[in-house]
Amino acid sequence: MTLFNPTLRTPEQNAFVPTISKEKSATELNLSDFSAFFQASQALSHQQKNNVFRLRHKVYCEELSFEPPRASGLEHDDDDQRALHCALAEVQSGEIAGTVRLIHCEQDPGPLPIEKFYAGRFTTPHLIPQCFPRENVCEISRLAVAAQFRRRLKDASAKDLPALSSAKQPFHRYIAIGLYLMATAMCLEKGYYHGFVSIEPSLARILQRIGINFTQIGEAIDFNGKRAPYYLDGREVIANLQPEYRLLMQTLSRQLLSKTEQHVVNRQIKSASDLHWAIA
């Protein structure tokens, strides 16, 4: 259930979601170049899914000890059978830099993990999963970023920090954000508009900076650190995203989805953009 969500001090928080100025100098990053460094894809085949599960094992079992080690070296559970899996790979090496999954209820309308872990702890009853059609809900979870892409450049022992960029690695800090945007694109294309996550409150506040606005719907519990349940409407995410990140999501969608699927997402992005300018 748990997203990889490091506890960040203020300097690292600023690095995790960098501010993009409206007037960029020639040396500043352009998010449209992200695809030259990382490639988004769905893990569909048995081998592709095993690659995702292997990365999750390294992060969740070997490095963070959030889950017990498996002899297979693969971290997976029953919910993976009803989940969509996304991966972000480094273009140059082909190595998976990060992954995230979407657990949905289309074939299995049973409870999401968040409904089990936070049973009796929800404080916003009108925003819990049971309030929405089961085919329109999902849970975003198991977000993991490979160690070499998230460690600080001068601290090889740091396992709990997102990557900072350098001249040779200018987009490492955007990997986790890219995974969230990939998950949002998948939610919109599949009609899983009502998303749920279990994350640290500090991470929820950080992501609000770029327009991913979570609504806390329950008490925080001690589960690999303090985590709380959150709700977000994928359509509102599109409406609130900063323009640079909206364009990044379109770029990732082109890699992640078929042309027909892209059309569904792009139509919703355009509608959200029109609404944003109409009310601005």
Brief synopsis:
The chain is α+β, with helices and mostly antiparallel strands.
Describe this structure in words.
Helix 5 (175-190) packs across helix 7, helix 5 (175-190) crosses helix 9 and helix 7 (234-240) packs across helix 9. Strands 1, 2, 3, 4, 5, 6, 7 and 8 form an eight-stranded mixed β-sheet that branches. This protein has nine helices and eight strands. The model is unreliable at 1-27, 152-167 and 275-280 (pLDDT under 50). It has one domain: Gcn5-related N-acetyltransferase (GNAT) (Aminopeptidase). It is 36% helix and 18% strand. It has 280 residues and is an alpha+beta fold. The chain starts with 9 loop residues before the first helix and ends with a helix.
Secondary-structure topology with pairs:
Blueprint: H1 10-16, E1 38-42, H2 46-63, E2 83-90, E3 96-104, H3 113-117, E4 137-145, H4 147-150, H5 175-190, E5 194-199, H6 201-208, E6 215-216, E7 221-222, E8 226-233, H7 234-240, H8 243-256, H9 259-279
Parallel strand pairs: 4-5
Antiparallel strand pairs: 1-2, 2-3, 3-4, 5-8, 6-8, 7-8
Helix pairs in contact: 5-7, 5-8, 5-9, 7-9, 8-9
